[in-house]
Amino acid sequence: MQDPNDDRGESRLYIGNLDLRITKASLLKLISPYGKIISEDFLWHMRSPKPGEPHGFAFIQLIAYISAMGQTSHSAKIDTIKNKLKPLEDESSRTKK
């Protein structure tokens, strides 16, 4: 079970309603830009009705890159606020002189 206080951004995704022609490699290629893939379960029919064909869904566990992007955007917001405050600080220091 995943610790709710764990901030690594690890997720297990259910991907359903997949076209039966999609391959495991193409699905992983599609998902990989969004995070580091830890594990995948691409499920296949083992018995009837269609042995060897995909079920049409998969589970993929990954560490999302979103958490790293969130930190960057937070830093950018702080820099923007500092830049807006700087002219106010300069103005108040000129007024005191």
UniProtKB/TrEMBL annotation:
<protein>
    <recommendedName>
        <fullName>RRM domain-containing protein</fullName>
    </recommendedName>
</protein>
<keyword id="KW-0694">RNA-binding</keyword>
<dbReference type="Pfam" id="PF00076">
    <property type="entry name" value="RRM_1"/>
</dbReference>
<feature type="domain" description="RRM">
    <location>
        <begin position="11"/>
        <end position="62"/>
    </location>
</feature>
<dbReference type="InterPro" id="IPR000504">
    <property type="entry name" value="RRM_dom"/>
</dbReference>
<dbReference type="InterPro" id="IPR035979">
    <property type="entry name" value="RBD_domain_sf"/>
</dbReference>
<dbReference type="InterPro" id="IPR012677">
    <property type="entry name" value="Nucleotide-bd_a/b_plait_sf"/>
</dbReference>
<dbReference type="GO" id="GO:0003723">
    <property type="term" value="F:RNA binding"/>
</dbReference>
